From TrEMBL, chain A:
Domain of life: Bacteria
Protein name: Lipoprotein
Organism annotation: Corallococcus carmarthensis
Keywords carried by this UniProt record: Signal
Signal peptide per UniProt: 1-23
Automatic annotation (TrEMBL), chain B:
Superkingdom assignment: Bacteria
Provenance organism: Corallococcus carmarthensis
Name of the protein described by the UniProt record: Uncharacterized protein
């Protein structure tokens, strides 16, 4: 619910921005431009590991958000879909402010952007590892250990 | 010598230790008082995690007394579904504390076993299905799995058959959400929402609660064709377990890390949020 509202808000904001730029015939001023850049790079990550409780989520820094987006977009296309795990660790999800979303489990990345869903292959499992390491600061230590061990045990 | 093996691991060898003479004598007294404590080796005492104890009478000493009582040389005692053996199970568990175990991490292992033993005391008996049972399809989950609803309803929504799109939490609707992750707290929250342990006369959703100790809870609901169905978090509702097997009995299905089986609840027109 919250995500789709934010996405709609952003679309409205960017739309108005574009309209304003067209009307004045000049590039947007610095302040709206900087804000736009910040919104595009801000992202949230979550680990899908619970069934009853909500998934733990945390904000990513601008740098981390941009780096992950680049890493995901650089991945080659894949054919394997996300596995149907059931109970337990099912992957990390990153949602960017522009509405794009990537879910990663092992070497599989599902990237949803602009209404399209693409499967990507991350053989070295680098994206997952990066998200796992980044989650450590945001998870209770025992939970982090449990997630880490399930990540390690996840079938490639 | 009477030795005890804590049946708890899947990959690692189970920890084993010998009882002192006094402990062995106390154990035989307990068994003499209640022979039903003992189970055959192939009894169903749990899946992943704590499955009770295996007791062996080897060589001489107390083993002689054991054999004189007519007890088999190797037996099971206690397990995930044996609340009647809870007291004796705790006794055996405590005997591990004085012994030298070949374990790097005895603390958490013994604590896990104790947690399951204690929680088995809350089990609402063996699987009894209340009728009339309110059933939904065990194959058609379109009500839950469409894009508009999939990510916003969890296992508790599914168990209640109430699609609130709020990722419902036990107790929240009554203003008192569960305060910890264990059978008593989460089950208590469910009871405040309207779930019962006794059967209802008009209609019953038959559900059961399981726990991943300290971390999370999960619910299953009895659906059509004698199957149990469930919805793991924001993923699709389904009728199979973590091993892709149809669920005929949630007590023995593959539940991943949700090793503690709390028991059965019944309800209809409960309120969840």
């Amino acid at each position: 619910m919250k995500r789709s509202l934010r996405g709609a808000w952003l679309a409205l904001g960017l739309g108005l921005l574009g309209a304003w730029a067209c009307a004045t015939g000049s590039a947007p001023a610095d302040a709206p431009g900087a804000e736009e850049k910040a919104m595009a790079s801000a992202a949230r990550a979550s680990v899908d590991v619970f069934s009853g409780r909500e998934a733990p989520t945390w904000a990513l820094s601008d740098d981390e958000s941009r780096a992950l987006r680049e890493a995901v977009e650089a991945l080659p296309e894949g054919t394997r879909p996300l596995p149907d795990v059931g109970l337990g660790y099912r992957g990390f999800t990153v949602t960017w402010a522009d509405g794009a979303r990537a879910t990663v489990h092992g070497a599989v990345v599902e990237f949803v952007s602009g209404g399209r869903t693409q499967l990507r292959e991350d053989a070295p499992r680098a994206v997952e590892e990066r998200l796992l390491l980044g989650s450590r600061a945001h998870l209770d230590p025992e939970l982090f250990k449990a997630v880490a061990s399930q990540v390690q045990a996840a079938q490639p | 010598m009477v030795t005890v093996e804590l049946d708890i691991f899947s990959g690692r060898p189970n920890p084993r230790w010998a009882l002192t003479e006094r402990e062995a004598r106390q154990l035989t007294e307990r068994i003499r008082a209640d022979p039903s404590l003992l189970l055959p080796l192939d009894a169903d005492t749990g899946g992943l995690g704590y499955r009770g104890f295996i007791v062996r009478a080897e060589d001489t000493g107390m083993a002689d007394d054991w054999k004189r009582l007519g007890l088999p040389p190797v037996v099971r005692l206690g397990g995930a579904f044996q609340p009647g053996a809870a007291e004796s199970s705790r006794f055996l568990l405590h005997s591990a504390e004085g012994a030298r175990l070949d374990l790097r991490d005895p603390g958490p292992v013994l604590a896990e076993a104790e947690s399951v033993i204690l929680q088995s005391l809350d089990v609402q008996g063996v699987m009894t299905l209340c009728s009339p049972a309110a059933l939904t399809s065990d194959t058609d989950f379109s009500f839950w799995n469409g894009a508009a609803n999939l990510r916003y309803n969890n296992c508790y929504n599914f168990a209640s058959n109430l699609r609130t799109n709020t990722f419902a939490q036990p107790g929240r609707a009554s203003g008192a959400i569960y305060a910890s992750i264990d059978c008593a707290a989460v089950g208590g929250g469910a009871v405040r929402d309207g779930w019962l342990t006794a059967c209802r006369a008009d209609a019953n959703y038959n559900v059961c609660l399981v726990i991943w100790p300290n971390y999370d809870y999960h619910w299953y609901r009895y659906c059509a064709n004698s199957h149990w169905c469930h919805k793991p978090g924001q993923t699709a509702a389904r009728n199979y377990d973590n091993s892709n097997q149809l669920i005929l009995n949630p007590e023995t299905a593959d539940r991943g890390g949700y090793t503690v089986f709390c028991g059965y609840y019944r309800g209809y027109n409960v309120t969840v949020s």
